[in-house]
Amino acid sequence: MIFKLPYVVQTNVIQQMELYEQYFLGLCSKRAELFIHRMPRRYNATVINLYSSCIQVQKPGVRGEDVMMWTLNDNCGENEEVFNASGDNGIELKYKEVKIVCRISYHPINHIPIFWCDDNHKKIISLAIHYSFCDVLKISPILQIKCRMNRLSDFPDVKEIDNIFECGPAGDREEYAMFFERVDIKNSAKLYAFPSPYFKPESKLLSIDHINIINSRWLTRDHLLNFNGRSARFLMAEHIRSDDVIEFIRRWQQGSYGKLEVIWISLSYMKTFSRNTILENFDLKPWDPSKRAARFPYPDGSIVAEENDILDLTNEMDIQRASDGRLATVVISNTEFRFFVWNEPFPTATAAKSRTDAWDGREWLIQRKIYF
To answer: Which stretches make up the Sdz-33 F-box domain (predicted)?
Structure first.
């Protein structure tokens, strides 16, 4: 019926639709799908949120907005009926040649659709919805998963993902450590805790481009020196000492850590670095505006929020690598070590954006784009 209206009216009507309404319209026919493809994109990625069984959409600077949910038929109580908004035949999705017939209901509070499927599809239903949704709405199909690692038995059946966000403590530590050997994380991982004692220094986790670990109490010297990614943030570290930092910087001077952009270590309570001991081992120079920019472009990854503008490096000291002349800025306090590598001396860096904390009203500076 909508396609009998004038083109301008069609466009206005479709633009007013919710995203899930545009998605269901695009499933109706090839003509409808092509029309949806021409609509301006409001979002550029999705997130599979296993914690809340939701598909979310996001754009730079926006963490995610729920658009769809899924659940299993077994979750329906004996006296509970599911309103099948999709008709008698349901909606058929497909993932790797596996057909999944779903019934559709609507959440009474969130007012978004819920896909119901059989229990034998529980490890692929989220993937089927994700790829179908991205295909119809022409959203990037990068695979981003938000999850609790104490329920790895429900984790989707994949061998690699782009970004992972852990939103709670892990369960079995050995299973947790093996997960990162079994599944390749192509871009970023934000984890609640460091998976030890089963986590080995040569683990693939230390080769992920961007890692952010909230509880790094088990991080050791060997783990630090084996890091081979682009950026890392380790919070609440207990076993990293001043001599470990000195060795890390020396190895960088000797040509190691070819992909490194930034590493940031925050010590746990009652642990300290000896700033003078570290700095006296290196020939450090004050900022020279002719050699590098004033602001460092923090790599995209998980959100970085600080009360101070940590990327303004005009008052910090630099070290130069003899082999290629590359600069790195060294920032050390009693409880933090930050190391910024200037792979491009004059990159394009945007100013930090302020955001008010919803809980206490404090102003935080958001340093870069976010994946989650």
So the answer is: 208-265
Same domain? For 164 and 286 the reply is: yes
Whether residue 87 is found in the same domain as residue 161? no
Mean pLDDT check: name the lowest of 169-173, 190-194, 210-214: 169-173
- Among candidates 234, 193, 315, 236, which has minimal Cα distance to 248? 234
pLDDT tens for 243-278 read 999 999 999 999 999 999 999 999 998 899 999 999
- pLDDT classification of 169: cutoffs 50, 70, 90: low
Q: Of 137, 165, 184, at which residue does a domain stop?
A: 137
Q: 0.85 cut: is pTM over it? A: yes
The answer to the question of residue 190 being in a domain is: yes
DSSP sequence for 85-143: TT-TT-EEEEETTEEEEEEEEE-TTT--EEEEE-GGGTTTHHHHHHHHHHHHHT-----
Report which of 328, 323, 330 is spatially closest to residue 242, judged by C-alpha positions. Answer: 330
The four Cα atoms 123, 126, 129, 135 give a dihedral, to 10 degrees, of -100
Would you give the DSSP letter of residue 168?
Answer: S
- List, for residues 29-82, the tens digit of each pLDDT value: 888 888 888 888 888 889 999 989 999 998 765 667 899 999 988 765 543 444
| CA pair distance 129, 156, nearest whole angstrom | 12
